[in-house]
Amino acid sequence: MIIEIPINKSKAAKQLILFSLLLLLFVIMVVQPQLFVKGTKYGFVKITGFIGTFLFTIITAILAQKVFNKKPGLIIDNNGFVDNSLGVMFAKVLWKDVTEIKHVQASGENFIVISIKEPEKYIAEERHSLKRKMLELNYTTLKTPINIAAGKLKVDFNELLNMMKRKYEEFGKEIAN
Q1: Residues 127 and 55 in one domain
Q2: Which residues span the membrane (predicted)?
């Protein structure tokens, strides 16, 4: 049985609008720095504008991908799951590799943190450098590369957490024996 949970497009669209406006602000800082400071010392404003433009271009592109992408945010089946909740599709995580599923709350957002056997293997198998960096950052901060941003999905958090735990109990431990 395959369960597909969609991305919360309305939330993603609101974020896209907000980050697009911030991107526009940073572009204006580069093009028209005199609007932000008196005098002729524009260096700091321009540097801030360039850095902000770079970062917010990446963030806006990721959000745009989430809004216009037709792929589900999370795909769960009897073998494992594929997480696309952050708009970046990672490789399938197999239930037999999962060791723990827990809830973590950070900055008011709910995450489902998935501990796995051999996390370095999952990181090393990722060919895309940006995705690999994201996995490494998750591994450094959460001690696992896999976490599901439940707030980005169109599903009740507790329902999703219970579903993930049920599937793990049903298929992960059964396969591991």
Answers
A1: no
A2: 12-31, 43-64
